[in-house]
Predict the 3D structure of the following.
Amino acid sequence: MAARKAFLLRINPRLYGELEQWAAAELRSVNAQIEFLLARAVREEGRGGKRPSGGARPAGPDKE
């Protein structure tokens, strides 16, 4: 498994509580839930390094 980067994240306690509940509902730790959400956001934005040929971002329903 690849090495993981550790860093401090300051977060609003209310938001942390919401993430804690969401993570519990999906049987994840809060850390794993945050990592999952960040990875999904990167993928959805087309910033994961795997873009369609030509390097253009994929057009979504609101992007034409």
Remarks:
- Residues 13-44 form one domain.
- Helices lie at 13-25, 30-44.
- The radius of gyration is 15 Å.
- The longest helix spans residues 30-44.
